[in-house]
Design brief:
Blueprint (H helix, E strand, L loop, with lengths): L2 H22 L4 E5 L2 E5 L3 E6 L6 E4 L5 H30 L5 H31 L4 E4 L2 H21 L13
Keywords: Membrane, Transmembrane, Transmembrane helix
Subcellular location: Membrane
InterPro entries: PMP-22/EMP/MP20-like, PMP22/EMP/MP20/Claudin
Length: 174
């Protein structure tokens, strides 16, 4: 059990927490136009006119295909980050004798990070394109997903680095 495995486990946990928070927040993007402000996440949006005291939040029911793709990528990233956390914990702390567990956790964590980054990039590209006439500003959920993706990739690399290698690999045909 090396330091890179423990740091990878911590990074993977941080990535999972950021992914959960960014997925649940209704603050991925904010739209402004004269006397109207709206924020939107992956599952709900909130809107408020300047004369209103409270924002009205509603579930997003009718979505375009790119939105469904972003949701799918983020949920795949979330589930893979959770699986990588479990495998990383088992491979680093519980059963470090089984060498391939941390390797699998590393590849799953890297894939989760790529899914999160791809979902955020698709969201940013399509939202900026479709929001003509509005001032668009990305909010806290969007950078959380970017950071979660980057930290997930770093955690995966650390898991792979923590995989114990045998000193004599000359007998290994692979």
């Amino acid at each position: 059990m090396g330091k890179s495995g423990i740091v990878g486990l911590i990074c993977c946990g941080v990535s999972l927490i950021l992914t959960v928070v960014s997925t649940a927040l209704p603050y991925w993007v904010q739209y402004k136009k004269s006397n109207y402000v709206a924020t939107s996440g992956l599952w709900m949006y909130c809107s408020k006119g300047y004369e209103e005291e409270e924002a009205q939040c509603r579930e997003i029911k009718v979505v375009q295909e790119y939105y469904l793709a972003v949701r799918a990528l983020v949920l795949m990233g979330l589930s893979m980050a959770a699986i990588a956390n479990v495998l990383g914990f088992v491979g680093i702390l519980v059963i470090p004798q089984i060498k391939n567990i941390s390797l699998v956790a590393g590849y799953i964590s890297i894939t989760a990070g790529i899914c999160m980054l791809t979902g955020a990039i698709v969201f940013a590209g399509r939202t900026s394109y479709l929001a003509k006439g509005y001032f668009v500003q990305f909010h806290v959920g969007f950078p959380f997903s970017l950071v979660a993706g980057i930290v997930g990739i770093v955690a995966g690399r650390l898991f792979i680095r923590a995989m114990p290698f045998e000193e004599n690999q000359s007998n290994n045909p692979l």
